[in-house]
Amino acid sequence: MLKKLSASLISLAIMTSSAYASQESKTWESSDKAKNFVKESLVMDMYASPYGAGWTEDKQMEEYIFRAMDTGITGSSATIAATYYTFEQFEAELGKWRSVINKHPEEMVIGYSVDDIKKAYEEGKYVFVWESQTPTILNGDLNKVATVKAMGINTMQLVYNGRYRTGLGVIESLHYDDIGLSDWGRSLIDEMVEHGILVDMSHTSYQTTMDIMSYMEEKHPGVPAVFSHSGPAGLYDCSPTEKTRKDALAPCYRLITDEQALRVAKMGGVVSPTFTEWMLDGVFPDDITPAQGADMLDYYVKLVGIDHVGIATDDMFSTALVKTFAKNSPQSYNDFGYMLDAFDRGADSGAELAKYLPALTDELWKRGYSNEDIQKIYAGNLMRVWEQTW
Questions:
Q1: In angstroms, rounded to a whole number, what is the distance separating the alpha carbons of residues 366 and 69?
Q2: Is the pLDDT of residue 239 over 80?
Q3: Cα–Cα distance measured from residue 130 to residue 63, given in angstroms and rounded to the nearest whole number
Q4: What are phi and psi of 337, to 5 degrees?
Q5: So what's the pLDDT on residue 198?
Q6: What's the half-sphere exposure (Cβ side, CA atoms, 13 Å) at 90?
Q7: Cα–Cα distance between 107 and 127 in angstroms, integer?
Q8: What is the distance between the alpha carbons of residues 188 and 388, in angstroms, rounded to a whole number?
Q9: Could you tell me the pTM of the whole model?
Q10: What is the pLDDT of residues 334-378, one digit of tens each?
């Protein structure tokens, strides 16, 4: 069934010039067949766009979402908090998003369940499901897990890049011994599983991810976890756990090893590579092409199987705000200057899904992927995990 588009949606979606959302992202040529396939499919992205770091004006977010809807994207697992946000900052952030969504009730909706996503797909609405990339929104209070779940948080990371009560992030582990998952982190997992919040291990240090998976296999067998936006280190000459090769390491620290990917797939989870160019600038000196995006997906499919791979643009609208955010958050981005240097060298683009997905579809068809395979990658696998965990 072709997803519906309202008259008001069409009038907004056809805006082609913008000073805002994903302004650096290239639009890739694609076939009409691929464009129609995307419109007919249920597609769920992951993008990281907290207010102030990804957007500061309603129009930025509105134009981005209407462009996504015009392409046929169903919705996203959108980041509502990151770094060291407090519960109060999370509440304020949520209010910013709601104020925009509430202006467009015929086009946008917040999803609390898998059924909400399915309903949005049938009605042609864009659905937001919320992810927190930090546990600090709990203010150290495990009782708040139930509270943030009721407020819409369905996925949460135990750490971001830095040092947390739960463990270390990927950047912190470049500088200090990787101590792994703390006892408080284990207690947090128990609360998340009980209240239906999916454990996300992107940004998380190697040892902490392995401890998380060991603990869940022991205490919560059958409950999957995910790497929501982590590329495959094994595709490149890259070692994200090697501390002594700083120049080679920096472009790798956000990637994960084959061991990590295989382990989460064994749990029934999903790995989704990010299509954000600056994170991989040591590998991609220009815009990530659909062929390069397909390389990452293909690598994961061959490694862990078609049932355990998803997509994640990790798109933050415009890197101008990201750069400022990183400069103002040195405790979260102490990566030997790699990220800011990558921006300065021109890594100022990303693969906005609305501009990228049809061309990526053409590329996957060229490689022999069936429609069913592609639909699993574009939403089906994550929908299964969400049904199991939410």
A1: 25
A2: no
A3: 19
A4: 80, 5
A5: 98
A6: 28
A7: 9
A8: 18
A9: 0.92
A10: 888 877 777 777 776 778 999 999 999 999 999 999 999 999 999
What is the SS3 string spanning the chain?
CCCCCCHHHHHHHCCCCCCCCCCCCCCCCCCHHHHHHHHHCCCEEEECCCECCCECCHHHHHHHHHHHHHHCCCEEEEEEECCCCCHHHHHHHHHHHHHHHCCCCCCEEECCCHHHHHHHHHHCCEEEEEEECCCHHHCCCCCHHHHHHHCCEEEEECCCCCECCCCEECCHHHHCCCCCCCHHHHHHHHHHHHHCCEEECCCECHHHHHHHHHHHHHHCCCCCCEECCCCEHHHCCCCCCCCCCHHHHHHHCCCECHHHHHHHHHCCCEECCECEHHHHCCCCCCCCCHHHHHHHHHHHHHHHCHHHECCECCCCCCHHHHHHHHHCCCCCCCCCCHHHHHHHCCCCCECCHHHHHHHHHHHHHHCCCCHHHHHHHHHHHHHHHHHHHC
* Position 18 pLDDT exceeds 60: no
pLDDT for 23 equals 59
208 is written with which tokens?
């902490």
Tokens, residue 270: 């999903």
Phi, psi angle pair for 342, to nearest 5°: -60, -40
For residues 200 and 274, the answer to whether their CB atoms sit within 8 Å is: no
User: Tokens 């937001």 sit at which residue?
Assistant: 128
Q: How confident is the model at residue 250, as a pLDDT?
A: 57
Contact between residue 271 and residue 261 where contact means Cβ atoms under 8 Å apart? yes
What is the four-CA torsion angle of 357, 362, 366, 370, rounded to 10 degrees?
70
Q: What is the dihedral of CA 324, 198, 387, 65, to 10 degrees?
A: -10
- Tell me which residue of 22, 14, 13, 20 sits closest to 275, measured CA to CA: 22
Length of the chain: 390
Region 179-205 average pLDDT: 97
In the block, tokens 């769920």 appear at: 44
- Show Cβ contacts of residue 302 under 8 Å, excluding neighbours closer than 6 positions: none
Confidence of residue 118 (pLDDT cuts 50, 70, 90): very high
Nearest to 204 by CA among 218, 220, 189: 189
